[in-house]
Amino acid sequence: MEKMEENKSKQNNVKRPKGGMIAMPFIFSNEVCEKLAVVGFYANMISYLTTQLHMPLTKAANTLTNFGGTASLTPLLGAFVADAYAGRFWTLTVAFIIYQIAMTSLTLSAIIPQLRPPPCTGEQVCQQATSGQLALLYGSLLLGALGSGGIRPCVAAFGADQFDETDPKQPTKTWKYFNWYYFVMGASILAAVTVIVYIQDNIGWGWGLGIPTISMFLSIIAFVLGYPLYRHMDPVGSPFTRLLQVSVAAFRKRNLTMVSDPNLLYQNEELDASISIDGRLVHSKQMAFLDKAAIVTEEDNVKAPNLWRLNSVHRVEELKSLIRMGPIWASGILLITAYAQQGTFSLQQAKTMDRHLTNSFQIPAGSMSVFTMLAMLSSIALYDRFLIRIARRFTGLDRGITFLHRMGIGFLISVLATLVAGFIEVKRKQAAVAHGLEDKPHSIIPMSVFWLVPQYGLHGIAEAFMSIGHLEFFYDQSPESMRSSATALFWTAISVGNYVSTLLVSLVHKYSAKPDGSNWLPDNNLNKGKLELFYWLITGLQVVNLLYYICCAKLYTYKPIQTPTKDAESEEAASKV
């Protein structure tokens, strides 16, 4: 009886394991509401800026791409805070609240007439927003960018943290999670660019921005409710400090002769325990000059090392891993530049075309990205259910193909997307000329908007391959203690891609201008522009980028890691008893 009671008390004291599939309903519920909010807020923002605040097209396009760039740059700050001090859960919670404030203030500007310019009708010159109205806009966008800084580097990584890759009893792998994450995200975006955009165009911007604001509030509640079930990864200090320590130590020992045997380099499992839970990085031959940071000299105290003079092999390899990731990171920039045109010039193309499904219903121009989402969702589903199984037979890999191969396929499809977009623009302008509408920018060209579906769809397929592969690459190949920071690199590539888009648009707009007023990218009449040449310019840049990526992928060395398993850890613990 005493033994039975003792066993029961032991069972009661056993903590329920955290993380895994039990945490997914809360994380995915949060993702659904958060993406519905964010995308519903900004998918049609170009229309809000041009029709409600009366901004010129190029200024509105650059405002949005600059916001997109800033919102993708702030994740570096959010990632640093999450990895070094706060952890991913609390960073996310605070970031959600900041984003909520941003959305609320912009929604108020859509509801209160004094916070936006008076409406204009017909061909009259519209009054642009005052400095105060623009200050509210830019303040809201800035708060949104700060909120994004905490959300973007942490939300995908926090979900992946719920799965322990070292546990052989856990059937779900992180690469499957990333497919699910992107599928749930895509489905939410699909709802945003259909339902929310329709409300904005046909019911009003008060409701059109109010519903996403309410959705963001619900996402915060869903996320916080799951707190007891989450697997939390504790912050382990500044990763940037460790990288700097390795660099300084290697520089200070630059004149030392490299040891003949890598096994003589400094190892300290106790020192690295908190930053090598999923496995210890082992020595690699590349960038041997950094290995000097791990050479032990007579001046070094191996029991309590001065990390500005002596670092372990694991810490040296952390820096090497990040350096190796750099060229692959850079290759993703131009794909984002190409993708960014969907929210600006492609949307303006759609506005000039026949968008009617029936005599009484027409597709909002901002909802054209629904075809991007449908193509992306279909590609993810086909990839997860069929392509992986087929590829697995040939490669023997559990994930079917490597993330580098997956990214390469995405790059190739993106090249086709902008190439096709140029030809479709030629046809659109020919239709405008044929019907005498070349000089009537506000008239609808009798050409179905479904001609734009191929370019939208190809961008969606490209994203299903490249973006998921890119995100998986950063999470998998980064040191485990820097996963928020590495995921921030994914968003930083998006940031730079948006800034490159802004720079490219500005340069093309400036240098393609002619004395007669013609321009590749005109402010007011797309029918008289040369948008197809702009698309083909991006195509040419992407071809060069694809060749660069192939070289980088061939030369890339995967992260060298010695991974412990839960079974091995259990046996080791049992042997110590």
Compact description:
One of its GO terms (biological process) is transmembrane transport. The chain has 18 helices and four strands. The chain has helices at 2-13, 24-42, 45-52, 57-73, 75-111, 131-161, 174-202, 205-225, 239-252, 313-331, 333-340, 345-351, 370-395, 403-434, 453-477, 483-511, 531-555, 566-576, and strands at residues 280-281, 353-354, 445-448, 561-562.
Characterize the structure shown.
With 577 residues, this protein is mostly helical. The protein folds into 3 domains: 21-119 and 127-229, MFS general substrate transporter like domains (Growth Hormone, Chain: A, Up-down Bundle), CATH 1.20.1250; 239-320, no CATH class; 324-560, MFS general substrate transporter like domains (Growth Hormone, Chain: A, Up-down Bundle). It has helices at residues 2-13, 24-42, 45-52, 57-73, 75-111, 131-161, 174-202, 205-225, 239-252, 313-331, 333-340, 345-351, 370-395, 403-434, 453-477, 483-511, 531-555, 566-576, and strands at residues 280-281, 353-354, 445-448, 561-562. The strands form 2 sheets. A two-stranded antiparallel ribbon has the order 1-4. It is globular and about 85 Å long. One of its GO terms (molecular function) is transmembrane transporter activity. Belongs to the major facilitator superfamily. Proton-dependent oligopeptide transporter (POT/PTR) (TC 2.A.17) family. It is found in: Membrane. Its main location: membrane. One of its GO terms (cellular component) is plasma membrane.
| Proportion of residues in β-strands | under 5%
Helix percentage? 55-70%
What is the makeup of the main sheet?
2 strands, antiparallel
Question: Which term fits the overall shape?
Answer: globular
Radius of gyration, in angstroms, nearest whole number: 26 Å
Order of helices and strands: HHHHHHHHHEHHHEHHEHHHEH
CATH topology of the largest domain: Growth Hormone, Chain: A
CATH architecture of the largest domain: Up-down Bundle
What is the CATH first-level class name of the largest domain? Answer: Mainly Alpha
User: How many strand segments?
Assistant: 4
pLDDT < 50 runs, ≥5 residues:
1-16, 566-577
Number of helices: 18
Instruction: Compute the separation of the termini in Å.
Output: 26 Å
User: Strand order within the widest sheet?
Assistant: 1-4
State the fourth-level CATH superfamily of the largest domain.
Answer: MFS general substrate transporter like domains
